[in-house]
Amino acid sequence: MENQPGAVDELTSLYRETIVKHAVTPVGFEAEIVATHQHELYNPLCGDRIEMLLDVSGDEINAIAFRGEACAICMASASLMCEHHAPGPVSELEDAHTWLESELKGDATDREIGGLRPLLGVKAYPSRVKCALLPWEAARKALGT
Question: Which of 81, 40, 47 is nearest to 64 (CA)?
């Protein structure tokens, strides 16, 4: 993604709005699903503890939910995963995690994963990148990938 005049300000605004919206009313938080896969991760640097729960049939994710106590960035990231990747193929969730991790760690790609662009605002806060990636890492570990 190329930085154009105003693009940084637009991303910063989108980042803030999205983080607040999803932290206040997170999609999938403590939702009751019949989880076939689950995994909990803890980030000792900021105290995030998040458990991702997935209902998977074959290669399809039917539902995603999460529980735990986490900062606004981690909560928003998990919420965006729930909102954009269920139902859907496991491969799309894996691709989204790979894309997000690459983008946040400075390896820009020439594509964009829909719905996750607001999380790129966390690049301005390198110590918080782990917060944004924690739910994705927990989901991938739950899936065994």
Answer: 81
